[in-house]
Design a protein that fits this description.
By secondary structure, this protein is an alpha/beta fold. It is built from 15 helices and 19 strands.
Length: 467
C-alpha cells in the first residue's frame, strides 16, 4: 500500500543507536513502518534524507513563551517558530504567564491562545501558588481541575520572584502530597530564597553593580541546599519530583542518590549550564543573566561528567526571552533573569556531544525520549516507532556554520551563543508527517499556518478531540 510520506536514505537515530534506514508515514501523521535501507518504500511524497540524520523531534520540557501577559518579548507563534527551526516538535510551556495559570479558567484561556498560534505541538505546565496549594487557599480545588484539563505537570518556586508567589517549606510539603496524589510530576525551582535575598540586599547596598555580583548572590550552596530540602520535604509523598535547570554537579548527585534509594525523582539541566561559564556574564552582561546563574568551569565540566554517567535525565532549553529594553535596565539587579535558547538547543547539544565523544543517542534520550516519558507523552512522542507521531528532525551533521542572532525566529533576536561555530544544522522539521520548517539558501522558513500545533495531554498523549 502506498504511504503518504517516506523519508529515505538517512541514518535513523534513536536513544538506542543509529542505523541507516527508511521511514514511512500514514494518513494520520503517524509512523507506519521503520524499514531497512534496502527496502524502498512506495509513497506519495518522498523526502530524500541522504547524508542526514533523522532524529525524533525534540520534546522541550522547559520553555517560557510569555503568552499571555509578556508578549512584547515572545508569544506562542514566534516561540514555536523558533522551536520548529530548532528541531523542537513538542513545546512544554512553563506557567510563568500573566495571569498565572493556577486555576482552571486561566489554564483553559491559555490553552486557547496557544492553540490559535502554535506551529508545533504543545503541552502546558500549571502554576503552584499559595492559593491553590494551601488546604485553606481560595483555589484549593483547582489542582484536580487543572489536572483534568490536561496540565502536564505543576511548578512551584522556592525563590522570591516578581512573576509568581513562592511556596514556603510548609506549602512545599503540602504541594508534594497533593500533586503526588494526582500522579503528575511536580517541578521545583530549587534555590534557597532567603539566602539569596540576604546576599542580594547586602551586595546591592555595598554598591556592587557588576555582572559577577549576580552569581555571588546565588552561590552553589543555595542550589545544593534547596535540592536537599526538596528531597527531604517530598519524602513519604507520592510526588514525582522533577528538579529543573540544575547547574551544580553535587545537586545532581543528591538527585541520583535519592533515585538509588528508590525515589521517583528526575534531574534536568539546560544547554547554557553545559556550554557557558560566568565568563559569559562578564562578556555579555545582562544577556547572560539567568537563574540559577552561570557558574564556574568546574561546574560545567562536572555537569558533563554527570551527564556521561547517566545521572541527568533531561535537557530543556529554559528559553526565557526578554526585550532588550528589559535586559538593559539601569541597575543589573533589576534586569530580569533568562536567556533565549529554544532554536539553538539541539544544534548546540549535538555539536558539544560530538566534540566530547558522547554518542548522539544520548542527545535523543536527554532531549526527546526522556522528556516525553517524564511528561506522559511517550511513546506518542520521543521515539521512531510504528504508531508514534511522525515528529522528525533532519539534521545535517557535516554542516559547519556560525550562529547569528539574525537567524532566530524569536521576537527578540539575541542569544548568548552569538558567533558560536556549530557542526550540526537542522534541515527540516516534521510534525505529525507535515513539514513545519525547511532550511534553505536564503534562510529557513516556516511551512504551516499558526494553529497547526495541537494540545497534548499526558497519559495517552493524544490531542484534544481525537479518538
Ligand atoms: Zn524556567
Amino acid at each position: 500500500m502506498q504511504s503518504r510520506l517516506a523519508i529515505t536514505g538517512g541514518v535513523l537515530v534513536t536513544e538506542h543507536g543509529a542505523v541507516p534506514g527508511n521511514l514511512t508515514v500514514d494518513e494520520s501523521g503517524r509512523i507506519s513502518a521503520v524499514l531497512a535501507e534496502a527496502v524502498i518504500p512506495d509513497a506519495a511524497e518522498v523526502v530524500d534524507a541522504t547524508g542526514l540524520l533523522v532524529l525524533p523531534g525534540v520534546v522541550d520540557g522547559h520553555s517560557h513563551l510569555n503568552d499571555p501577559g509578556y508578549t512584547d518579548s515572545e508569544d506562542f507563534y514566534t516561540g514555536t517558530c523558533g522551536a520548529a527551526a530548532g528541531g523542537v516538535t513538542t513545546v512544554i510551556e512553563h506557567p510563568l504567564t500573566d495571569p498565572l495559570p493556577d486555576s482552571l479558567d486561566v489554564f483553559l484561556a491559555k490553552r486557547e491562545i496557544a492553540g490559535a498560534k502554535a506551529v508545533v505541538d504543545y503541552a502546558l505546565w500549571a502554576a503552584l501558588t499559595p492559593d491553590n496549594v494551601s488546604y485553606q487557599g481560595v483555589k484549593t480545588r483547582e489542582l484536580a481541575r487543572l489536572a483534568g484539563a490536561g496540565a502536564v505537570a505543576f511548578k512551584g518556586f522556592m525563590t522570591f520572584t516578581w512573576e509568581i508567589p513562592r511556596l514556603d517549606d510548609g506549602l512545599l510539603m503540602v504541594a508534594f502530597r497533593r500533586v503526588g496524589e494526582l500522579g503528575l510530576p511536580i517541578g521545583v525551582h530549587s534555590e534557597n530564597g532567603e539566602v539569596i535575598r540576604y546576599l542580594s540586599e547586602h551586595l546591592r547596598a555595598s554598591g556592587r553593580e557588576d555582572p559577577l555580583s549576580h552569581g555571588e548572590a546565588r552561590p552553589e550552596i543555595t542550589e545544593r541546599e534547596a535540592v536537599a530540602r526538596v528531597l527531604e520535604l517530598s519524602r513519604g509523598s507520592e510526588a514525582r519530583v522533577h528538579l529543573v535547570h540544575l547547574s551544580v554537579p553535587e545537586a545532581v548527585d543528591l538527585v541520583a542518590r535519592a533515585r538509588f534509594e528508590g525515589r521517583t525523582v528526575s534531574a534536568e539541566t539546560c544547554p547554557h549550564y553545559l556550554t557557558l561559564t560566568e565568563e559569559a556574564l562578564t562578556r555579555l552582561g545582562p544577556y547572560a543573566k539567568c537563574n540559577p546563574p552561570l557558574r564556574s568551569s568546574r561546574c560545567v565540566e562536572g555537569m558533563w561528567q554527570r551527564l556521561s554517567l547517566g545521572r541527568i535525565d533531561s535537557v530543556g532549553s529554559d528559553h526565557g526571552p526578554f526585550t532588550r529594553q528589559e535586559k538593559e535596565r539601569d541597575s543589573f539587579w533589576d534586569v530580569p533573569a533568562g536567556v533565549t535558547g529554544i532554536q539553538v538547543m539541539l544544534p548546540l547539544m549535538v555539536t558539544e556531544c560530538l566534540r566530547r565523544g558522547i554518542p548522539l543517542e544520548s542527545v535523543v534520550r536527554l532531549c526527546s525520549s526522556n522528556p516525553a516519558r517524564l511528561f506522559g507523552l511517550y511513546p506518542r512522542k520521543g521515539v521512531l516507532a510504528p504508531g508514534s507521531d511522525a515528529d522528525l528532525v533532519l539534521l545535517d551533521p557535516r554542516e559547519q556554520w556560525e550562529l547569528t542572532s539574525g537567524e532566530l525566529f524569536a521576537k527578540e533576536k539575541w542569544t548568548p551563543h552569538e558567533g558560536w561555530r556549530l557542526t550540526a544544522r537542522v534541515r527540516r522539521t516534521i510534525v505529525r508527517g507535515q513539514t513545519v520548517y525547511v532550511d534553505g539558501p536564503g534562510g529557513g522558513r516556516i511551512c504551516v499556518e499558526p494553529g497547526y500545533g495541537r494540545f497534548l495531554r499526558p497519559g495517552a498523549g493524544r490531542e484534544e478531540g481525537s479518538a
